[in-house]
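Exercise 7.
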Amino acid sequence: MSHLDDKEFLHRHDPMEMSVLTNGFLIQCHEARSFARAVALPETLKGKKQIVVTGLGGSAAGGDLLSALLADQGSVPGSVNREYTMPSFVDCDTLVFATSYSGNTEETLSAYRDAKARGAAIVVVSSGGKLSEWAVADGYPVISVPGGQPPRTALGYMFLPLVVSCEKLGYLPNQDFDDVFSAIESVALTCGFEQPEAANPAKKLAQAMSGKLATIYGAGGWQYALAQRWRGQINENSKEMVITHFFPELCHNEILGWEGSHEQGVDELVSVVLWGGDESQRIRDRIAITKRLIGDATSFLDVTAMGSTRLAQMLSLAHFGDWVSLYLAALAGRDPGRMMAIDQLKEELSRLD
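Solution. The predicted structure, written as tokens, is:
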């Protein structure tokens, strides 16, 4: 029997029950949609020229997905800010989503103050903390979500309120949430702990990736946002390094880097391509040729999204990656909930204040 089919083995390395939080993603997404729909948004938030999501880490991952969704379907461009200050173009014609799961992320608090000073329209998404307190005092809408879990497990809470808000304000068309929830449920059923490895694509992929340096490639721009999400989850849960890039851009630079990769001290590399399933024939041809040209330097594995709509495809790929990161952690004997270096960094920074 595979280690990944041994429940005792899986739970032994997961004392914080990250698997339980991951398994609750579908319920979380249902709740997040309801929370967002219940919050009234003023008409003054409509008609802005651009949208900026400011946040860090797990709280910013939803911003990456929103920017990709806006590029695919939206009426205005979106971007993500991960700095203490806002980009220079932010002004009264900008809608800013200030996102911090804890509500106390210092960079986001600083960026919120900067956005307020610039006269931007602001919506806060948070479980509380100073950010929610400040927003209430300043008269900005707050979409409150449940707290008490690691931000990286709260993608539904931090992303879907952005989507629903953009729907309500006319920046995105109405989304097919039935397709979204169906796709997430399908991933949970096929990739969760209960599904044996023989029929579990996430367990199979983790076995193929374990002990190797992985490159996660998006088959296009929006898929790259998911590759970035996978990188963050593997970094935080599996405590492993990952390289990310996307087609067709990597065909103009990284494809040459593979020539000398065998001399860089890495024993084995594996490349995972994230597909939406509706890529153009030109992109499919380009990826096929790339695989042939560099196939002696890295093995290739493919993951295709579920669902017929872009939002469903995004969230199904995200959920798939969550499970892969937990299985990689288990195979390496690492606790996916532990955050030692991040906690130490925050502690040392606090001493400087």
